[in-house]
Amino acid sequence: MKRQYYLGISIFITIVILILDQITKFIIASSMKVGDSFEVIPNFLNITSHRNNGAAWGILSGKMSFFYIITIIILIVLIVFYIKEAKHNLLMQVAISLLFAGALGNFIDRVLHGEVVDFVDTYIFGYNFPIFNVADASLTIGVLLIIVALLTDMKKEV
């Protein structure tokens, strides 16, 4: 019989991402001033202490009430989607766990500090990509995995 839910894996992923996210943000916030930066890989990766009180690229900067409401709605939708739609699909459950952990990680920052700590500063093909954190990376990977899971399901149905 095929397992419906891989709840242990989902909880493990969520907890690991949350811990990693919060520890890295704490280290950056406690050891670097905003704007401090050091090069890790020349012309590719810096660690730069940055704060963001908006969404990606500073969109909707300072609209904390909006972010609180939207994040709570997103977290509820993810839980419902996990329960109703992700049965038998480990990849979809992992993707939702990554999305949940990422949204919760940044939500914790917004509630406790009124802003999100960002620090991963990359240059990709000469483009200075917006500074991000572990939660942001988790969200991005989660979205990519959902796309893969949906495309895989579509192939099975054809």
From TrEMBL:
Major enzyme class: hydrolase
This protein's record includes keyword Transmembrane: yes
Membrane disposition: Multi-pass membrane protein
A GO cellular-component term linked to this record: plasma membrane
Its EC number(s): 3.4.23.36
GO biological process: proteolysis
Family: Belongs to the peptidase A8 family.
Protein name in the entry: Lipoprotein signal peptidase
Gene: lspA
